[in-house]
């Protein structure tokens, strides 16, 4: 199957990145290209197509963003606020994927326009199930918005 969708994972924890990559392989999500950036500033550069991310062939705009909250340089909330202010990018679907269940974090994310808020599951099997659900809903069944 050819790659049809790109997911941008914004995650600073190398162990979580490794688990996500393993879960994508295990669940055979080969039609998804997973791009990873490790901090909020890199996410903004990627989405802007600036710096090392200027080549849209190598770094295509994502169909979906999985965004951690606790990031170096610029928090997930700050990335989300920036994204929603960008006329050509503001429609990109964003899922917060974090370990925080704090009501203040959840409410702030929705106030800033997040599409969904998920708490990282406790085990590898649960992560795989979550990714299958994300794939089915957000990439296969959901109508994607037009972005520049």
Automatic annotation (TrEMBL):
InterPro entries: CheY-like_superfamily (IPR011006), Sig_transdc_resp-reg_receiver (IPR001789), TCS_response_regulator (IPR052893). The keyword Membrane does not apply. Signal peptide: none annotated. Residues 6-135 form the Response regulatory domain. Keywords: Phosphoprotein. Pfam families: Response_reg. One of its GO terms (biological process) is phosphorelay signal transduction system. The keyword Ligase does not apply. It comes from the Bacteria. Gene3D superfamilies: 3.40.50.2300. The modification 4-aspartylphosphate is found at residue 68. This is Response regulator.
